[in-house]
Amino acid sequence: MKIVIVGAGRVGAVLAEAYDAAGHDVVILDQSTRAFDRLPSEFGGAAVRGDGTDEDTLRRAGAADADVFLALTEGDNRNVMAAQVALENLGLQRVVAKINDPVRAAAYAELGIATICRTTILADAVNAFLGLASLGLPGVIAPTGGHHAGHEGSHGASDAPLAENLNVGAAGREA
Amino acid sequence: MFVLVVGGGKVGYYLSKELIESGHEVVLMEKDRGRADQITDEIGSVVVAHDGCEGKYLGEAGCARADIVAAVTGDDEDNLVICQMAKHHFDVRRTIARVNNPKNEALFRHLGVDEIISPTRMILASIEQDIPVHELLHLAALGEGELEIIEAHLQDGSPAIGRAPGDLTMPPGCSLFAVVRDGVATPLLPDMTLRVGDKVIAIGPSDCSASLHEQLIGDNPEAVTPGL
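The joint structure predicted for all components is written out below.
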């Protein structure tokens, strides 16, 4: 699978390393080449310096035929915009954006982007460790409407198709 | 009218000031506390010192009852998100975004922003109008940018001078539809004779300018301005 990651922060770099090790075709973008220091020396994918919200840059990096597009920079709005360029201008189907504002995360799921909200995930993890009740907000929200009607609409079950295909880690290499 | 302005830079500041002077109700959101205080000192307590990209604060600033939301920060991605949140989450009727990268205009329009203001595009257009040798002028983009209206200023040396529009070979999908002669615009007829000084208006795909240039301007190197 071809996986494009925008943002080589901790999460982006960890995922890039894992997908590359699992045999996927990985392209990772960041505005700063220093961010690529987080990648291991044996990283076999492409590391491209550039603005992941810019369509031309994404096309040059080969994002136009990506199977999965992950927007994982530290800025919610950069992620939102990169994801929408991927959905609308590149016509990609599987687009995930990290959006740490729970209100924005819910709003953009309605616009066709799978959103991951670290705020609610982390809060729930803390509560689980302390034995307190969950906030009851979904940390991962499937796209529920918007541009691509082909997306699965139900909450919760949405991350399953991604996980099935990604075969990260011990599952070995995929063709 | 209640206008919610997001971004307290120069544009947001003067915009809010003018709107207040014309009697409108204004709330200005500026996330930098120092800047917010400074604006409050100058134009009164209309400033909310919070990030307008944050759904919670947009709601608190009264976004749901705004007639218009104007997103005028210096960052395109912030302006896009502010308008989309306003439109889809708060049902605001009209959203206006400032866009710095002209390439983002089509995307913003496609994503539902009602009005897009691009200072870069405006300055560019103004510069192009001021350069006399720039004979092909891009007047406007149509649809989502795939079509353009182009004006060709016919000068000495143009292969089209003395010929009829019907005799010219136009690039596929491109047509000439009007001529401006002595300040008067008339529809272009196939048997008309083109003259020096005519401004011919064409519509066609955005990649046809090279061949339009060849047909209407000629390839006199002195008359060609690089960059088109």
